[in-house]
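Record type: monomer structure entry
Structure origin: computed from sequence
Chain ID: A
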Amino acid sequence: MCFNDANYRLTKLSTIYWQCEWCKHLFSDHIDQDNKVGGEYYQERNKQENHIRIERIGKMMAGMDKKDYHILDFGAGFGALMKDFRAAGYNCDAYDAFNEEFSRLPERNKYHAVTMVETIEHLSGNFIELDVINRSMVIGGGIMIETSFVDIAKEDGVPLEDWFYIAPQNGHSSIFSHWSLDLLMVYKGFAPKKHFNRNVRNYVKIKDLK
């Protein structure tokens, strides 16, 4: 994220993770994601938390009418959040590269908000998915990213070697620090806004990528 060198940090289930000493970004080589659609406890997590996600997007709308507000759930799994947004009266589409039902690329310069729920930790490399998201959004649109961060393990006093979220079996190849995600998002044309909490980060698109 910061163009500094990363060093070997740990091995989990034969998967090697490196970590940058400066920005603390933790990552492995690419992990195959073909069989990871939805993730663990998909139905339970959506039933318990989607109403909170919808409330957060409502706070990001800045007075816009629901019918004029277009949302994209990126990394949508089986589309549960999209369905709940629609049930709440929002215009919402779903995209997931690993689910044929939602594998159509989003429309350019259309969306006012994008949600990425337990998605960004599955990405790797140059994070070109964020380029796709940038091109799909209007200037001033908001993106809400929900994941876990190495900061949380540190705050909770859990050694990374014992931390449940480093889970190659679940496809977790990129685990950010708060700082490294902010760095990446700025590089991809977004600016940090007031974040919701230590797991949910909030950004606004400030420029189109060339």
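Annotation 1: The chain is about 25% helix and 25% strand.
Annotation 2: The chain has a mean pLDDT of 93.
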